[in-house]
Design brief:
By secondary structure, this protein is of the alpha+beta class. The chain is 26% helix and 30% strand. The protein has 8 helices and 22 strands. The strands form 4 sheets. It has an 8-stranded antiparallel β-sheet. A 6-stranded antiparallel β-sheet has the order 11-22-13-18-19-20, with no helix packed on it. α2 packs across α3.
């Protein structure tokens, strides 16, 4: 027979487990667990193990998430709960319960006292624990306090060491672009300012367009040739650490088209396409691509770019594009389309390809990055050769991706984009943008390049 207090404990245990399952499903990218297939549980096992190094079998995950029904609800062992909590960026299960309890009390307007700050998974299950007799509470919490003091002291030492290391790295040199804004093409001039004690250090500049340059101790100025319109986030590296950034911005006068060929990094091909701008669309014909110098028998890409200062909030906007990808032809098998939204300090970008090509898909939403070579991005697999509608809606740093009106992914990021500075739509081969709409969700301000 279970006591009343025991029943309350289990109720609260499952309360935290329910919250954890919801956050895990959101981090996995499919918040609607009712639609999960067996493959989702297999993939979640892989991604959990990749991050936490704890293997949880698909059947165990099904019991945790309620897919497999049992007479008594399944409550996982602590190592399993620790792995789930770690997957959603908590240290362990106790840390997750403590933070969740604090957030719930803050939302409810309840005071957050010292005892609540030191709750563990065992002491947080029942708020009534906070009003038990003092002698019993102290007896229960004394070992916890000792452990927490040791952990906090160790964490403080570690944090101070990291701060010193970071300060050392950040003060070694800085990167400055002397002419960050220009038209296409643009020769940007970068200055490397070394700090005292680092005059003989070697650095690397990643220019944000796929190219890099090693900077020797004798170099203080270096120029780089940008040949595509857009916004580039150049970074200065010392070893494997980014120590500074600089932004370069190539502005366009409305929509432009630029072609490039795979494995040819020596040049790009600006395209003149007056016939493709009629009737409110963007389209480059094969004939126009050939006229620009592109060998259309090889794999080539066509990107449409419209960069300008917009006044639109990059963390609260909605973008909808109706597109048609290239038919299958020589050099084009995946019928790819990719959309990039340039922010002030970061960007959002995603690809959509035929389902058989999801291995090549990339997804980046501010600081969050995924690659089809390492992550399951099958939700971005779609055949758009006959046309389709893509939507990226971002509200308060929560991004939602939809294909043909169906939401396929949702995630929350941390690093804000701030103001939007333009967009890019890229196709493998020829492709068509039949309509493009971008607006600020709060002010309703439209993007000047809408059609």
């Amino acid at each position: 027979m279970v006591s009343k207090n025991g029943q309350q404990e289990m109720t609260d245990h499952f309360h935290f487990l329910d919250i954890c399952c919801r956050l895990v499903s959101e981090a996995y990218g499919k918040p609607d667990r009712s639609r999960w297939t067996n493959g989702d549980y297999v993939e979640l096992e892989r991604t959990l193990f990749k991050k936490s190094h704890v293997r949880i079998s698909p059947n165990t995950l099904k019991r945790i998430f309620g897919k497999i029904k049992t007479d008594a609800r399944y409550y996982p062992q602590k190592a399993t709960r620790d792995a789930l909590a770690y997957y959603i960026d908590f240290r362990d299960w106790e840390d997750f319960v403590r933070v969740t309890t604090m957030e719930e009390r803050i939302r409810a307007g309840a005071p957050v006292n010292e005892q609540l700050l030191n709750l563990t998974a065992e002491t947080a299950v029942i708020p009534d624990e906070l009003v038990r007799p003092a002698d019993k509470r102290v007896t229960m919490l004394r070992p916890v306090y000792i452990i927490l003091v040791v952990v906090l002291l160790a964490a403080m030492v570690w944090a101070i060491w990291l701060m010193l290391q970071q300060e050392h790295s950040q003060t070694s040199a800085s990167l400055v672009c002397r002419n960050p804004v220009g038209e296409n093409p643009h020769s940007a001039v970068f200055g490397i300012h070394r700090k005292a004690g680092h005059t003989d250090a070697a650095f690397t500049i990643m220019f944000g367009d796929g190219k890099r340059r090693k900077i020797g101790p004798e170099d203080s100025v270096y120029t780089h040739y940008y040949e595509r319109p857009g916004r580039y986030y150049a970074t200065l590296w010392e070893g494997s650490v980014v120590i500074d950034t600089a932004v370069v911005y190539l502005v366009t006068n409305g929509w432009t088209a630029t072609g490039s060929m795979m494995h040819d990094t020596t040049r790009v091909y600006p395209v003149i396409y007056p016939e493709g701008r009629r009737q409110g669309r963007q389209f480059v014909s094969t004939a126009a691509a050939v006229h620009a110098g592109i060998d259309t028998n090889r794999t080539y890409f066509m990107e449409f770019t419209n960069t300008r200062q917009t006044g639109i909030d990059g963390d609260n906007f909605e973008l909808t594009a109706t597109v048609k990808t290239s038919p299958e032809r020589a050099g084009v098998r995946c019928s790819e389309v990719g959309i990039t939204v340039f922010g002030e300090s970061s960007f959002h970008a995603f690809d959509v390809m035929r389902p058989g090509c999801v291995h090549w898909i990339d997804l980046q939403l501010s600081e969050l990055q995924k690659s089809g070579q390492h992550d399951d991005l099958s939700f971005l697999g779609a055949d758009l050769r006959n046309g389709g509608r893509l939507t990226l809606r971002v509200a308060d740093k929560t991004a939602r991706l939809s294909i043909n009106g169906r939401q396929v992914y949702q995630v929350r990021y941390t690093k804000p984009l701030h103001e939007l500075y333009g967009v890019k739509v890229q196709f493998a081969g020829v492709g068509t943008i039949d309509s493009f709409q971008l607006r600020d969700l709060k002010t309703k301000k439209p993007f000047p390049g809408n059609f």
